[in-house]
């Protein structure tokens, strides 16, 4: 992007700004790597503040009198995007909308994956309890391949300590779940 200042053309390197707009994706990466909620937020804020500082340095190289707003980054990063875009003559509402859309998409995706993770964990606990009730020391290690088949029902596999991947059906009853185990006669021996 080029701006004029005192009849001189100034070229602005926006790479750190573009990366800043994409920093909410760091939350997805951290969530995918199972960093946990606090570690994901730390990864996001470190990436956001780093990009904002580096972008500020680029703007100073271009003789822009722009000072980033750390509070805007902390509370709602698209506000910082709006302020920065306005300062350099970019489409501020467009960039605000893009950054807000990314934030909302990341929020929705992490909520869905967190919900699916809680269903997996609860189902695994139920499978282990079923085996305990049958006087077996087989336990569920984890639930894999979770697929939603209808509004309340999921199909998955329970990985057991005896080496079996048992197909299960999970019913989400709102405040609890109900797990149906596939009847394989040799599993309860």
Keywords, separated by commas or semicolons:
6 strands; two-stranded antiparallel sheet; membrane; 189 residues; alpha+beta; elongated; 2 domains; transmembrane helix; transmembrane; 4-stranded antiparallel sheet; single chain
Number of beta-strand segments: 6
User: What count of structural domains?
Assistant: 2
Strand order, sheet with most strands: 3-4-5-6
The overall pLDDT average reads 82
> In whole angstroms, how far apart are the ends?
71 Å
- Secondary structure tally, helices: 6
Order of helices and strands: EEHHHHHHEEEE
Describe the global form.
elongated
Strand content: 15-25%
Helix content: 40-55%
CA radius of gyration:
25 Å
Spans of at least 5 consecutive residues with low confidence: none
Largest sheet report = 4 strands, antiparallel
Which structural class do you get from the secondary structure elements? alpha+beta
Q: What would you note in describing this structure?
A:
There is one protein chain. With 189 residues, the protein is an alpha+beta fold. It folds into two domains: 2-90, no CATH class; 117-188. It has six helices and six strands. The chain has helices spanning 15-22, 25-32, 37-61, 70-75, 77-87, 92-133, and strands at 2-5, 8-11, 140-148, 153-160, 165-172, 177-181. It has a four-stranded antiparallel beta sheet with strand order 3-4-5-6, covered by helices on one side. A hairpin with a 4-residue loop joins strand 5 (165-172) and strand 6. Helix 2 (25-32) packs parallel to helix 6. The longest helix is centred in the middle third of the chain and has 42 residues, at 92-133. The protein is elongated. The mean pLDDT is 82.
């Amino acid at each position: 992007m080029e701006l004029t200042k005192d009849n001189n053309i100034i070229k602005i390197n926006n790479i750190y700004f573009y990366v800043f707009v994409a920093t909410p994706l760091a939350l997805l990466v951290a969530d995918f790597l199972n960093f946990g909620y606090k570690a994901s937020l730390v990864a996001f804020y470190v990436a956001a503040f780093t990009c904002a500082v580096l972008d500020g340095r680029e703007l100073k190289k271009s003789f822009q009198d722009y000072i980033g707003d750390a509070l805007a980054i902390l509370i709602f990063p698209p506000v910082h995007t709006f302020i920065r875009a306005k300062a350099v003559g970019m489409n501020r509402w467009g960039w605000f909308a893009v950054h807000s859309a990314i934030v909302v998409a990341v929020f929705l995706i992490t909520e869905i994956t967190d919900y699916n993770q809680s269903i997996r964990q609860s189902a695994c606990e139920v499978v282990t309890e079923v085996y305990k009730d049958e006087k077996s020391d087989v336990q569920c290690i984890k639930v894999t391949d979770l697929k939603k088949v209808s509004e309340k029902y999921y199909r998955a596999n329970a990985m057991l300590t005896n080496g079996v991947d048992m197909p299960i059906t999970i019913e989400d009853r709102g405040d609890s779940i109900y797990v149906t185990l596939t009847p394989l006669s040799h599993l309860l021996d």
